[in-house]
């Protein structure tokens, strides 16, 4: 994903008013970027509950972990 697409996605995320949709869009962007490096991410914890309850529960953050055995870089 090039810088232009990332900036466009971040602008779309920033403009989103619904916090649950905003989290979904951020998770999608993060997943796409990490997938380019061979890392599969999955939403977990309170973030997953927020998505499953369609915002009835709000965690206020985005929890993700890797679902495959790819090596994560230190930075």
Description:
With 75 residues, this protein is mainly alpha-helical. The protein has one domain. The protein contains three helices and two strands, in the order ααβαβ. It has helices spanning 3-15, 19-35, 45-52, and strands at residues 41-43, 64-66. The chain has a two-stranded antiparallel ribbon. Helix 1 packs antiparallel against helix 2. It is flat. The mean pLDDT is 88.
Widest sheet, order of strands = 1-2
Q: Low-confidence parts lasting 5 or more residues at pLDDT below 50?
A: none
Count of DSSP H/I helices = 3
What structural category do the secondary elements indicate?
mainly alpha
Strand content: 5-15%
Shape: flat
Average pLDDT across residues?
A: 88
Total tally of structural domains: 1
**Biggest sheet features:** 2 strands, antiparallel
Distance between the termini: 18 Å
Quaternary status: single chain
User: Which range best describes the helical content: under 10%, 10-25%, 25-40%, 40-55%, 55-70% or over 70%?
Assistant: 40-55%
Radius of gyration: 13 Å
- Element pattern in H and E: HHEHE
Tally of DSSP β-strands: 2
């Amino acid at each position: 994903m090039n810088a232009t697409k990332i900036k466009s996605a971040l602008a779309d995320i920033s403009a989103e008013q619904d916090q649950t949709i905003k989290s979904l869009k951020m998770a999608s962007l993060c997943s796409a970027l990490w997938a380019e490096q061979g890392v599969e991410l999955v939403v977990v914890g309170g973030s997953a509950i927020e998505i499953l309850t369609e915002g009835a529960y709000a965690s206020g953050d985005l929890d993700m972990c890797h679902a495959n055995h790819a090596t994560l870089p230190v930075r």
